[in-house]
Amino acid sequence: QSGLGVFLPATVALLAVLVYVSVGSVGMPLLVLAAVLVAVVWMTGFMGWIGQPITALSNTAPTFLLAIGCAYVMHLAACYQRQVHAGADARAATLAALERMRRPVVVAGLTTAIGAGFVALSDLPLVRGFGIDLMAGVLSVNVLACFGVPAVLSLSKVRRGSGILRSERRLGVLLFGIVELVARRPRVILAAALLLFAAAGIASTRLVVDSSGPKAFAEDSRFRRSSEFYRSHLSGD
User: Fold this and answer.
1) Is the pTM of this model over 0.85?
2) CB 117 within 8 A of CB 131
3) For residues 38-49, b (16+ Cβ closer than 10 Å) or e, as one string?
4) Would you tell me the crossing angle of helices 2-23 and 171-184 to the nearest 10 degrees?
């Protein structure tokens, strides 16, 4: 609970800054974060409803959901802003954004939920609970991105020329520069990616599988010292 109390607000604050830098407006970050935070509340409510406890693994689910959900809502919001910039009113811009983005958002949400569903098939209760929580959260943010956010956008006051990610604005300068670099040097980028892939593959052979809970405690703690004693004298703790 203490970890969740630290990481969740920190993630929200960081995402708020990044969204603001990306779109250059205050209202859009508030809408994006509000939608995803509602999904987090839905997910934690679902956990309480089914009796799923907060564990060392499931307490990371809200942070995962914030990162994933912001992407879904941002795509829809960016498409809405482009329509507004082109002269559409709020209702027309919302309908056009939904027409363009509903399929990608739904497909992205469903594939992510399916991935979490496979995690939920694990025999380990800790991992299974995390998969169930994340699946519920992803489906929640998907529903909000397709229904709740468009409803708010259609009722919002149109402000033309603000909140659009353009090549000359803040984060857009960096992102569009990366796009141009990849377009100019595709073979170099591909070669570098293959080298990184090979290096990562070699390094992965050095992984040590260890899911021991005692290592989460301080080395000088009484529990950790007792655990190490049992591990060294017996087959495990």
Assistant:
1) no
2) yes
3) bbbebbbebbee
4) 80
